[in-house]
Protein 1
Amino acid sequence: MTERTRSRRDDRAQTILDAAGAVLRRGGGRALTIDAVAAQAGLSKGGVLHHYASKDALILALVARKLEELRAGISACEAEAGPQPGPAGLGLAMVAHLREAYCEDDDFSRALLIAAAENPEALAGYRAFVAERLERLASAEPPGAGAMLFFAILGLVMGRTLGFHDIGGAQAEALFGALERAAGALGTGARP
């Protein structure tokens, strides 16, 4: 396969994922069908199936892309913050990324989470992400503080994603500030 052919194939796969995201945003997980994605992408059903053999394969690819975006966002925040040792650096990066991405595309995230919940294989990516973060935060002092910070962030995000609350504005900023103080205290044993 030539580089040009590979590039076109990758572009087509991304176009399909973009179309699947649009279908999810507009109609939720129930609307996500190969036919709907094909129509949104301007492709035949066979064209979609050539890249993604099933709806489950499409969901797996969407979850993988979302997790890659999340990892990249947190890594970028870690790089911007400069060398910050141990769990405090990761905690501060997670809070910085949360501040940047909070309320971003709640409809897509909600629909993707619901669609992924029906597929244990798709949830494996989320579980691995959580396990990686908890492992990196495990050395925080006092014991359990890193996990507490992670689950506070997760609770804020998931609560918003699932529509349990609509915290925003000054209230969200106050929470981000409290999370940032807690992250900064990781490893010191100090209380935020």
Protein 2
Amino acid sequence: MPDQTAALAIASLRPELLQMEALLDAQSNTTRQFLRLQAQRIAEAMQHKTGQVRFTLPDRIINAEAVQLTIDAGQREQSVGGGLSLRRRTAHDVGDGLRQRLDELRSAGSEALQVAADLLMHACAHFIVHDLLPAGRSVTYTAEESGDIPALPADSGLDPESAITQDSDAISEEGAADAGRGTLQVPFTPYARRFYLPQWVALDDAARLLVGGDDEAESIIASMQNFVYTIHQASGLAPYIIADAVYQQKRGGMLGQLVNQGRALAVFRAGQIIGTVRQRAAASTLNRGLHLSLPYFDDRSLLMELHEVEVIPPGRIQFAQSFMVRAVRLEEANVSQDTRLSPATRRHLLALLEQLAGAFIG
């Protein structure tokens, strides 16, 4: 559940959301369908982070006073991105360019253009939230401490264990089937069913893989990152869209899942590093220095980052487990004072460092 400050912000934006929904409903069926097609074109370009998109404004729209306004043919065709402006941009997506272009249309001095820009902005944000991004399960996450992103899935104790499941509880296996029988449902694990999209759960609560390999896990993390990126693009276009209940459900459901799975992947990677170091130590191939890049998940950037740990400086020094423990203890002291990290990310990274040290104690 959003905290009190967030709840007040959402409540303050709800009248604007309702106003824009009413304005869209006031348009003719033809205009609404036209706006939806343009919104779909823009939203898909934003999701795939392309550099250019063309869209068209409707020829007629109705304003809040139910007056029909006409847009000149020469003003209907619009384009964002491409050319020299694209090469100078650091982010190859149309989000910033689209917001800038819509602001220009609003300030052009034409009521028709201003209303059309508002409608297109709303239609695009609505399409992203309601149609472009997949819907998931009703879930509850808890936070470790106040201020953290809720990312610990609650166990309702009601997860079905049998193969007779709902569509949201299983993957439908396609292929030959006996006549008269339904589609085979392959249930997700009980742990995966605690999350918003069970099909995007790659690791369990002990950071063990639930998918075919770590490359597949990384691909799933990337899909969740793109989901969150895309829904944030919707709120960038139309800030009031955060008052939409579907926005809150999808954002909260996927944000908690992404943070949970990102941290679990970091724990899995730490285990791989420990295994590699042990193998190389046994083969006496660590006597020319050892530098580690420890992955961790940053809940501010929502990205996997690397924390560098120099265990043995370059040179001819024989590896000893005590060197690993000492290096990690020094890094723990540094991380505990690093104010660039959120408190939750700091705890997560410290736990990873403790995992690394614990594997080489004794």
Protein 3
Amino acid sequence: MIGRLNHVAIAVPDLGAAAALYRQTLGADVGPAQDLAEHGVTVVFVTLPNTKVELLAPLGAASPIQGFLDKNPSGGIHHMCFEVPDIHAARDRLVAEGARTLGQIKIGAHGKPVLFLHPKDFTGTLIELEQS
């Protein structure tokens, strides 16, 4: 059902510093910051030859990323995103098999539908599905 790894997301306490680290120290192709109000985050994508790294920072006090950073002040891996050809079919199949979704399908940073899956159902890892 899942396709290629779209990105690995890393929550960071300082988005500018993290972007500079990837750009200057690692020599990566780092995109501009994007505010995603519906998700409560500001993101920067680091483009790699085979996938992307998404740097996430809280956007506002109610951001779900703030809770993660409160527990992990230095930041850390937040989730993995996999592509699926049909997000509605993937959701229906996963729910029928007992998986829990977090919220509803929303439009993500790439302008495509996304859905998050409960980490307790996936070996402690928050999974994001993105329609390819």
